[in-house]
From TrEMBL:
This is Methyltransferase. InterPro entries: COMT-like (IPR016461), COMT_C (IPR001077), SAM-dependent_MTases_sf (IPR029063), WH-like_DNA-bd_sf (IPR036388), WH_DNA-bd_sf (IPR036390). One of its GO terms (molecular function) is methyltransferase activity. CDD domains: AdoMet_MTases. It comes from the Bacteria. Pfam families: Methyltransf_2. Signal peptide: none annotated.
Length: 348
C-alpha cells in the first residue's frame, strides 16, 4: 500500500512554524539595539534604506532583511521614501530617552544567537559558507555545498519534507495543472510536491531535477508514494546544465527564496526557455507585502532564509516583475498552506 501525498493535515501546522521562527525576531531586534545602534541613528534624521545600510555597514540584502522585520514589528515606518521611527520606537528604543528599554534588551546582546546573527548581517554570507560543512539548500559551482555530501544532503532534504508533506496536498488541490503531461520540478528535493501532483493527475509525468545526493532521497520517496513509473530523476546544476526542454509546466517550489536577485532572474529565464509555447511556470513560495513591511511571520522567515542561504523572502510584486521581464503573463496568487502560495506565469 502506497502513502498518500494528497491527504491534507487535520490540524493546520502553521502555528508551529511561526513559533519556531520566533527566535529570529528577538535576534534581529537585539542586534539592531545593542550592536548597530539603529534606533539612535534614525532618531537623528530619516534615511533611505541605502543610506541606513551605508551608515550601519550593511549590504543591501542584510539591510533589507533587518529593516523589513523592524517595519513588520511596527518599530520603523517609511514616509516619503525615507525610514523613520514609529511612536513605539521613538519613546522606548532611542538611547538616552526617558523611557528607553534598550539596556534591558541588551541583556541578550552577547547570547550566541544574537552574536551569530550580527556576524551574518555584517558578512552577508550564509551559515556554513566559510566552513567545511558548506551551505545548506544551495549549490553553486566552486563553492562548498551541504547538498553535495550524502549525509548532509539527506539531513536537509528530509528536514524539508516536514513542511512539504503538510503543504503538498494543498498545492495539488489548487494548482491548475489542467491537461499538462510533463512537469519539471526544479530543485525538487524529496519530490513530494511532484508526487502529490502525480497522484492527483493521472496523465502527468514529472522530472525531479536536483543534486545527485538529494535525488537518492527523492527515489525513496517516489517508491513510498508509488509513482516511480511516472518520475524521472535528473541530476544536475540548474544554473549551468541543460534543462529538460519542451515541458508543459515548471515548478519552482521554495527555490527562488534561496537566491539573490540576479540568480532569481536567471532561473526564471531558464525555466521560460524550457517551456513549450503557452507553457506555465508555477512559483510556489512565501510572499512579503509589496511594501516590504510584513507580514511579521514572513519577515522572520526571511531572516531564516537570509541566515541559511543567499536569498530572502520576496514580495509578489518582485516575483511578478521578474516574470514579466522573462516574457510571462502572471495570474493572481493562490494560497496553499504554512504561509505559502503559488503564482502562475504563462509563456506569452
Ligand atoms: C529549499 S530546497 C526546496 C526543495 C523542494 N522544492 C521544496 O519545496 O521543499 C532547495 C532545493 O534546491 C536544490 N538545489 C540548490 N541548488 C541547486 C543547483 N544549483 N542545481 C540543482 N538543484 C539545486 C537543493 O538541493 C534543494 O533540494
Amino acid at each position: 500500500m502506497y502513502e498518500s501525498a494528497i491527504q491534507p493535515p487535520v490540524v493546520d501546522p502553521t502555528p508551529i512554524f511561526e513559533l519556531f521562527r520566533g527566535s529570529y525576531g528577538s535576534e534581529l531586534l537585539t542586534a539592531a539595539v545593542a550592536h548597530f545602534d539603529l534606533f539612535g541613528c534614525l532618531s537623528e534624521r530619516p534615511m533611505t534604506l541605502e543610506e541606513l545600510g551605508d551608515q550601519l555597514g550593511l549590504q543591501p540584502r542584510p539591510a533589507n532583511v533587518l529593516v523589513t522585520a523592524l517595519r513588520a514589528m511596527d518599530l520603523l515606518q517609511q514616509r516619503d521614501g525615507k525610514l523613520c521611527l514609529t511612536a513605539l520606537a521613538s519613546e522606548h528604543l532611542v538611547p538616552g530617552s526617558r523611557l528607553d528599554c534598550g539596556d534591558y534588551l541588551s541583556l541578550a546582546a552577547q547570547s550566541p544567537g544574537v552574536m551569530s546573527m550580527v556576524d551574518l548581517l555584517k558578512s552577508n554570507k550564509p551559515l556554513g559558507a566559510e566552513g567545511d560543512s558548506g551551505t545548506a539548500f544551495i549549490y553553486r559551482d566552486g563553492a562548498k555545498s551541504a547538498m553535495d555530501a550524502e549525509a548532509s544532503a539527506r539531513h536537509f532534504t528530509l528536514a524539508l519534507a516536514g513542511r512539504a508533506k503538510n503543504v503538498a496536498p494543498a498545492l495539488a488541490e489548487v494548482l491548475p495543472i489542467g491537461d499538462a503531461e510533463t512537469l519539471l520540478d526544479l530543485g525538487g528535493g524529496t519530490g513530494i510536491y511532484s508526487y502529490a501532483l502525480l497522484q492527483k493527475n493521472p496523465q502527468l509525468a514529472a522530472v525531479v531535477f536536483d543534486r545527485p545526493d538529494v535525488l537518492k532521497v527523492a527515489q525513496e520517496f517516489a517508491e513510498t508514494y508509488g509513482v516511480t513509473d511516472r518520475v524521472e530523476l535528473h541530476p544536475g546544476n540548474m544554473f549551468a546544465d541543460p534543462l529538460p526542454q519542451n515541458v508543459d509546466a515548471v515548478l519552482l517550489s521554495n527555490i527562488l527564496h534561496d537566491w539573490d536577485v540576479p540568480e532569481c532572474k536567471q532561473l526564471i529565464r531558464r525555466c521560460v526557455e524550457a517551456l513549450k509555447p503557452g507553457g506555465r511556470l508555477f512559483i510556489h513560495d512565501v510572499f512579503l507585502n509589496d511594501s516590504l513591511d510584513g507580514p511579521l511571520p514572513i519577515a522572520l522567515y526571511s531572516a531564516a532564509l537570509f541566515s541559511l542561504t543567499e536569498g530572502r523572502a520576496y514580495s509578489e510584486a518582485e516575483y511578478r516583475s521578474w516574470m514579466t521581464e522573462a516574457g510571462l503573463a502572471s495570474k493572481a496568487k493562490v494560497p496553499t498552506l504554512v504561509h505559502c502560495g503559488v503564482i502562475e506565469g504563462v509563456v506569452k
